Each structure stands twice: as structure tokens, then as C-alpha cells.
């Protein structure tokens, strides 16, 4: 018997570009409850530090500075916020049919309360809160937008619980 040495990799963080770093930190810390682990700071293009060189490697040469902040969810997933002074400040086009990152999902058992807080803070509710297994299990979901137009999803229960019951099976 061959031993399977492949194992599931853990999720470390997601990077989100926002139009205003301070407003985004306020929204994500106050509405989502995420911990601020590094307040907003400015990164300038330079080659004298490891961070400076890494940013040049990632972003190329066509920039001079940007703002960055780091937050964390309750389960230790990092949220890396970026704000570039010359980036497009409008909401991205919502197009889930094209290749690329479509959304991220967070979990809160009090989905109705969280959706209300998101809307009250300037975000949007994109659909009604829906049940995966009406009258059977209490698993719910809803797509929302933050105040900057970034689409994400809210679940009431873990990914494993939601789909292990066969959400698409009859």
C-alpha cells in the first residue's frame, strides 16, 4: 500500500485592496470584529530592506508607495489590506463567471445581526438570507458587500458541516 504524503495546506491570509485604508480597518475591525495586528502604515519603494525588495518583486517598478494594514480573524486567518494612491477607487465589477477570485466567506452563527451591521455600516445585502436545508438543518448563507464594493459571503456554520450533508444532492 502506497502512503499518501499529500496533506491539506492551511489558509494563511487574503490580501484585499481598498480605496481608503483607515475606513477599511474601521469597518473590518468594528463590524467584523477582526483583530488589528498592525495599524495602517506606509510602505515606500526602496531596495534597502527585505520588505522593500519583496514589494518591488510583487508590484514591479511602477509605484512609489502604498498603505498596508494587517488584521486577523478569530481563527488566525490574516487579512492584509492594501491601499494604493493611484489605483482605481471604484468598486470592482462583480463577475463570478470569469477566472479569478470570486469571493471569500466568513462565518457567524448570528447571520441576521451581522448582515444588518454590514448594511448599517454602508455595505449592501446582495440577496435574501437563504437556508441550505429548509426545515431540516439551520445552515444559512448570504452574499453581501463591504462599503467598498467587495463581495463576500456569510455562513452560519462551518464549510465542512454545510457541505458534508450534500447540499446539492436530493
UniProtKB/TrEMBL annotation:
Transmembrane segments: none annotated. Keywords: Lyase, Metal-binding. PANTHER family: BLR8189 PROTEIN (PTHR43048:SF6), METHYLMALONYL-COA EPIMERASE (PTHR43048). Pfam families: Glyoxalase. Residues 10-157 form the VOC domain. This is Lactoylglutathione lyase family protein. Gene3D superfamilies: 2,3-Dihydroxybiphenyl 1,2-Dioxygenase, domain 1 (3.10.180.10). It comes from the Bacteria. GO terms for molecular function: lyase activity.
Amino acid at each position: 500500500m502506497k502512503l499518501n504524503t499529500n496533506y491539506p495546506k492551511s489558509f494563511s491570509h487574503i490580501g484585499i485592496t481598498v480605496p481608503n485604508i483607515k475606513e477599511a480597518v474601521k469597518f473590518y475591525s468594528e463590524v467584523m470584529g477582526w483583530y488589528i495586528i498592525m495599524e495602517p502604515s506606509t510602505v515606500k519603494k526602496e531596495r534597502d530592506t527585505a520588505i522593500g525588495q519583496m514589494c518591488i518583486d510583487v508590484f514591479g517598478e511602477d509605484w512609489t508607495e502604498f498603505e498596508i494594514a494587517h488584521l486577523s480573524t478569530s481563527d488566525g486567518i490574516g487579512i492584509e489590506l492594501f491601499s494604493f494612491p493611484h489605483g482605481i477607487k471604484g468598486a470592482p465589477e462583480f463577475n463570478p463567471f470569469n477566472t479569478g477570485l470570486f469571493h471569500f466567506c466568513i462565518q457567524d452563527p448570528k447571520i441576521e445581526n451581522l448582515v444588518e451591521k454590514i448594511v448599517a455600516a454602508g455595505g449592501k445585502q446582495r440577496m435574501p438570507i437563504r437556508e441550505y436545508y429548509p426545515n431540516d438543518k439551520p445552515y444559512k448563507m448570504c452574499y453581501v458587500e463591504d462599503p467598498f464594493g467587495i463581495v463576500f459571503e456569510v455562513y452560519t456554520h462551518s464549510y465542512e458541516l454545510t457541505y458534508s450533508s450534500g447540499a446539492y444532492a436530493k
